[in-house]
Amino acid sequence: MNLKKYFSIPLLVSAVLGGIIGGTIIVLLPLLLRESVFEFIYPNKTQTEQQGIKTPPPVLQQDGGIAEDEQTVAVVERVRSSVVAIAVTKDLSKMTPYMDPFFGEPVYPFEDQFPQGKQKVGGGSGFLVSSDGLIITNKHVVDDEDAEYTVVLPSGKKLLAKVLARDPVLDLAVIDVEGEGYPFLTFGDSDKLEVGQTVIAIGNALDEFPNTVTKGIVSGLNRNLTAQDLGDSVLLEEAIQTDAAINMGNSGGPLIDLYGHVVGVNTAVSYSGQLLGFALPGNLAKRDVEQVEKLGRITRPFLGVRYLIIDEELIERNQLTIDHGVLISRGAEPGDLAVVPGSPADKAGIQENDVIIYVNDIPINQDHSLSSLVGRYLPGDKVRLTILRHGEELDLEVELGEFKVED
Q: Cβ contacts of residue 86 below 8 Å, gap of 6+?
């Protein structure tokens, strides 16, 4: 009898079973020890809490508790019927001729290219703010007084538009189309916007793709910048910065929140960076609409001072004891006086070299410029300016005038 043969089988089985059991112990032992160690060190916490893993916060819920993606779709569906495209046309064959420098003869621009008269020369976006056809857009979209403006509704219907008012300071304008019963958008409170808040931009992207929707967040608030438009500089103060894509043609379209309220008017995009779009605060546009409805025009307050923003150089040079405000100072030219004679500032007693530090107790700083703080009021409103004169603080009451655009 071959005993070696019979002993080898049990030994082989034992080896296999031992390997399985041993491998199982090797796999499970660290987990068992890990759990026991966590329980020993953190007896009152779950393993998820012990590892520092936090449950993500719930998404914004509104309109019956639907999630953000569904909310976005629902909001877009609700508001897009109020967003319009604006076509700018002009009879280029009637443009003023210029004198040919070589032959001394008048030349009519575009006469050969556009012999049939009116041609489309530009476009932008806008949105309805009343049922009777009031529309907000950017001033630079409708700034040509010799052009004709046509509003194209989402249905494709075209309506001739009339420019009711152009803001004398901001890049905003109000136009009007005939008719009643239009779906319109309502304004939210742009002063309550927060960085990181979700926003949606809608407009006529590239003047070709109407009702284009982009989504992003509020990337920054109170941005001050100068936008270039066909050679003209447009100052934007208290602008909303967003990474929601804003392209050419989006100008004048709405920036809305997840509740469908307008919080901004899309105005500019930076070509030197990626996803840097800017919108004017909705509260400013809302005020313009209210003025047009009440007065038939848009007015801006006038103070009548020339100033320099306080910075480290001014603080050191003038030995100032404050780190914010504006120094009332004359300009480089002889006629650039610090205080305009007969202006509201002059009547209130403001003098050259005064430092204005507060407007109604709000500090003038990089987030709130003097012009933007004064711009919150209307001509005829009275504001309290806190000034620093020879080291002493004084309060002066100023009745604001109306800003007049020079021809």
A: 123, 124, 125, 126, 137, 141, 142, 149, 150, 151, 152, 161, 175, 204, 252
Tell which wins on pLDDT, 333 or 275: 333
Active-site residue, selected from the candidate residues 82, 125, 167, 171: 171
Q: 82, 190, 251, 343: which is the annotated catalytic residue?
A: 251
Mind listing the domains of the chain with CATH numbers? Answer: 69-176 (2.40.10.10), 190-295 (2.40.10.10), 301-402 (2.30.42.10)
Q: Does the annotation mark 143 as catalytic?
A: no
Kindly name the residue from 82, 140, 257, 368 that is annotated as catalytic.
140
Residues 64-85 have pLDDT tens digits of 555 778 888 989 999 999 999 9
The string of pLDDT tens digits covering residues 287-312 is: 999 999 999 999 999 999 999 988 88
Alpha helices in 42-194 (DSSP H): 47-50, 68-79
Respond yes or no: is residue 207 known to be catalytic: no
Active site residue 251: yes
* Structure tokens given for 225: 């910048």
